[in-house]
Each structure stands twice: as C-alpha cells, then as structure tokens.
User: Which sequence fits this backbone?
C-alpha cells in the first residue's frame, strides 16, 4: 500500500504530535508499505530526505520556530503544501492519505480529496478537536465549525490518540472514531528493572514545551516545598514560559538541583529517561502525551494532573499519583510520598512497565494499517 502522510509538523519540528506521526509512518514503512510525508520546512528552503524508509518532503511555508507553530503558519502549511500534495497524488498515486491533526491538516486532505478522490483518514490529537484546549481554540472552532464538519464527514475513517480525544471528537461531529493509542517500540527501549532502593538523589524529569498547558512553573513551586528531601530534576524542552521557569528556580533556591537542557535529540532524551525514576506531568490538558508513553517503557512512575487525557496512561495509586490541576500543595504531597516511600515507588514503576505493553508499537501500527487498508478498499468500491 502507498500511504501519503500529511502533517504540518514532523521531527525535528514540533512536539508530541509530530513525533507520533513519525513513529507511525516509520512503523508502517517497516511493515512493507511505501510511505511519503508532506510537511513544512523551517524557513524558506524546501528539502527532501529519507529516514527509516520514509520519504519526507518539506515545503517552505514561513515557519519560524522549531518548537511552536502559529495559526497563520498552520494555514500557510495548507496553502504551500496544496500543489506538492497534488503532485504526489498525480505522480506517485497513493492509495490513501493519513492526515495527522484534523485541523489544520485535515483541511488539506479534504481539499485534495475533493479534486482527486483519494480517501483520507484523520488522526485527531487534542487541540484539533473542540474542547481539547478550550482556552486556546474555542473561539477558532466556533468560526470554522461548518468547514470542520465537512472535513470530518468526508473522511473515510477517523481515529483519535486517546479515549479523551475520541470522546470529544464523537461528541462534536457525531460519527464513529476509533481509538488508537500513541505507540512506542518496546524492543528498542533501554528498560531498567526497578530496584528495591532509590538512587540518591532521586531523579525527576519534566519533558515538554514550556507553555501554560504544560504548567512547568507550578512543578517548581511544588518542588520548592520539598527542599528537605534528596532529589534532582531535569527539564527537557523550551518555550514561552522559560523566563517564568528560571524565575521559580531562583526564587526557590533550586539552581543546584534543576538542570535545563533545552530541546534534545531523541537518543539523549531516552538516555535521561532511562536514568530517572519519576516523570512529572503537571499539565492543565493533554491528549495522550508521548512523554508519558515513553516513561512507561522506561518504568517511570508518573506524578500527573487529574485530567482526562492521562487516564489511558496513568492509573492513580497503581503506576502514579494525580493532583487537581493547579493544586500545588497536592502535587507536592504526591511527590513527597513517592520520594519517601521506596516500596510504593518501586511498585508504581513496575506497574508502568506492565502498562507499557498496551502501547507496544507493532500492535499500534497494525491498527493503523487496518484502518488505512479499509479506506483504500472504500475507494476501490
């Protein structure tokens, strides 16, 4: 099967959604399919590359930053990738289109489908469905609602990366949505078997954009209450809250305990996760964070927020603990419990390893393969 993947960001550009698109594309290529990706370039220079059997076409679209993409830049991706996508279809003749992010990428898939008849499959993440990140997108979705309904109704199939996103999409668009969780190749993860003792100081990790959704400053406020305990924190990422993060480090006197790495290559991220005990996720909203899935594969306990988007990956009291959103005292209490109860922490880490089996990439890739094959069959009919 020939699969054309459309995604407005693809590593090294973007965050978790782009990494999901890459993981799925490479897994499908590994299963013998021919896979092309049409995505955006950084700056003005269009490029082409091949990685893990996937041909990646990057078209210049005025994107300015690696880690974030504005709404106008998303729109420019759709405009600048329109003709290249038509060329892929006329010259390469894909059997199906796989569009990551129902908005904006689904709009591009819908437009070329109208002209060519090639069926498309939508994969929704979080911010591309109404209610996912309401403080950021509610107004936008009210404006584009009629167009969004056409995009969803025209898809041969629709998928979502978590139960939460699946529910939001079905409620908004009134059609069947298949849940396919974000996957990770457990065979490639450097998994450590959790020991009965915690290394001193315990290693905590935060992984993600420094933005209001990820809520990194609150984590530092919580850790400021735990200076009597032995721990160290590695914060991987960057973003608009960087100054707030640095200010909290200074205010709480944590400079000798917290390391800010900026964005790192995937291999270095995996090395840090393999050395850690706890992943900290104080987010205000999530679809299904890739960082959490990677943490499961490395046997990390998770200290997270009590939000629907974590329920596929975190079972409170089993492989981690949750605190109400913005409740700094509760987050600090959960971390204190993990750091002072070695037996509890080890049990949670072992539960994470067991839970990781549900996200094993071969099963996830097979699920996408089945959906895309059904879409191709729909076209043939």
Assistant:
């Amino acid at each position: 099967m020939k699969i054309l993947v459309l995604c407005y960001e693809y590593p090294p550009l973007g965050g978790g959604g782009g990494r999901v698109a890459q993981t799925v594309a490479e897994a499908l290529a590994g299963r013998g399919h021919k896979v092309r990706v049409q995505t955006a370039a950084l700056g003005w220079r269009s490029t082409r590359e091949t990685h893990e059997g996937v041909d990646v076409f990057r078209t210049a679209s005025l994107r300015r930053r690696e880690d974030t993409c504005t709404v106008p830049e998303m729109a420019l991706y759709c405009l600048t990738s329109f003709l290249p996508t038509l060329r892929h279809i006329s010259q390469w003749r894909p059997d199906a289109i796989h569009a990551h992010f129902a908005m904006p990428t689904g709009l591009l898939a819908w437009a070329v489908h109208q002209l060519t008849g090639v069926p498309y499959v939508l994969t929704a993440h979080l911010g591309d469905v109404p209610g996912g990140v309401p403080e950021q997108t509610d107004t936008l979705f009210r404006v584009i609602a009629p167009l969004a309904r056409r995009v969803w109704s025209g898809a041969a199939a629709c998928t979502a990366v978590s139960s939460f996103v699946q529910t939001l999409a079905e409620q908004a668009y009134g059609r069947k949505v298949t849940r396919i969780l974000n996957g990770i190749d457990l065979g490639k993860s450097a998994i450590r078997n959790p020991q009965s003792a915690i290394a001193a100081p315990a290693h905590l990790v935060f992984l993600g954009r420094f933005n209001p959704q990820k809520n990194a400053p609150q984590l530092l406020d919580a850790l400021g209450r735990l200076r009597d305990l032995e721990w160290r924190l590695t914060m991987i990422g960057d973003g608009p809250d960087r100054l707030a993060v640095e200010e909290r480090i200074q205010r709480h006197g944590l400079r000798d305990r917290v390391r800010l790495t900026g964005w790192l290559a995937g291999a270095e991220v995996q090395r840090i996760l393999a050395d850690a005990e706890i992943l900290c996720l104080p987010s205000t909203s999530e679809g299904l964070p890739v960082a959490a899935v990677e943490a499961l594969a490395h046997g990390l306990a998770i200290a997270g927020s009590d939000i629907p988007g974590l329920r596929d990956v975190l079972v409170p009291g089993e492989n981690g603990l949750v605190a109400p959103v913005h409740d700094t005292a509760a987050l600090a209490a959960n971390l204190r419990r993990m750091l002072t109860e070695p037996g509890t922490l080890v049990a949670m880490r072992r539960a994470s390893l067991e839970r990781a089996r549900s996200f094993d990439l071969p099963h996830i890739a097979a699920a996408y393969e089945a959906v895309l094959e059904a879409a191709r069959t729909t076209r043939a009919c």
